[in-house]
Amino acid sequence: MNHFDIHSERLLLTPLGFDFLESVNEYALDYENTKYMFHLPNESSEETAAFLKGVEEEWAKENPESFEFAVIRQGRQIGAVSIYLEDGTGELGWIMNKKYWGNGFACEAAKALIDYFAEHFGVRHFIAHCDTENIASRRTMEKLGMARTGEYGGRMNRAAQRESSEYQYELNL
After folding, report:
1. How far apart are CA 45 and CA 123, in angstroms?
2. Which of 3, 28, 85, 119 is the most buried (most CB within 10 A)?
């Protein structure tokens, strides 16, 4: 699979990899930035490096099942966005460095993924999940035109002291 970039009005989505270790660590090691994330925060730079190595290995496959992108704004990585493909469905995910919250960047990056994967991969069904307390992610999903289709208990975010619930959102094109 060749690497590819996706452009939106204000952002560049480019394959995430080891070159972004420092900027990924800036948000991935930060509890406040990751408190609603299932697999974060990372405990060390080495853990981030191992994740990024796995991302590069996935990009190197002939037919990747997941695509992790660095979100670039004015030459700086401000977050990441991803899509995991399974049975014609694309599961979306995103994280933005807290310095850039509140500017619509997560929504713009996710919309660019939806548009690109619909056009180039024929994906017509998208899903996303978030902690029920993550108001910003819920709003992002709603701005994308996604509808809430489920609520599930038993979510244990990595840094959480207690179990929480999550919402599932879906979009059909």
Report:
1. 34
2. 28
Task: List own/partner pairs for 1-10 with CB under 8 A and 24 or more apart.
Answer: 1/59, 1/60, 1/61, 1/62, 1/63, 1/64, 3/59, 6/69, 6/112, 6/113, 6/116, 7/112, 8/108, 8/109, 8/111, 8/112, 9/108, 10/73, 10/105, 10/108
What is the pLDDT at residue 102? 92
Alpha helices in 31-74 (DSSP H): 31-34, 45-60
Mean pLDDT of the region 154-167:
74
The two three-digit tokens of residue 122, written as one number: 């024929």
Domain for residue 53, yes or no? yes
Q: Is residue 157 in a domain?
A: no
Exposure string of 8-43, with b = 16+ CB inside 10 Å and e = fewer, is: beebbbbbbbeebbebbbbbbbeeebbbbbeebbbe
User: Strand 12-15 vs strand 6-7: parallel, antiparallel, or unpaired?
Assistant: antiparallel
Residue 16 lies in a domain: yes
The pTM of the full predicted model, rounded to 2 decimals, is 0.92
pLDDT value at residue 157: 62
Its domain, for residue 37, covers: 6-124
CATH of the domain at 120: 3.40.630.30
